[in-house]
Amino acid sequence: MKPKSIKPDELNKIFSELKKGEESAIGSYLVKGVRLQISKYNLSGAERVQLLYKRRRAQGMCIVCGKKVTKKNPSTDQLYRLCEEHRNKIDKGSK
């Protein structure tokens, strides 16, 4: 994932989010040619995957491949967690 380019004055916002303990501060940032990476320390593999899936869902991406999800679940009116290809393989294939 490419680092998000931010201005130096936007660092204050990120640091205040860190002080509050919000996960929205986690990420990779580019400030004046310097990459700043903020991540949790000593995560297990399952915890890393959980954070990745949570971030992808929030951005409307397939949790498996990262493609943009376009279809919504008609009963919940929310985007599906999987793209059409993986829905056919995983969800519909198990029925």
Automatic annotation (TrEMBL):
Report what the protein is called: Profilin domain protein
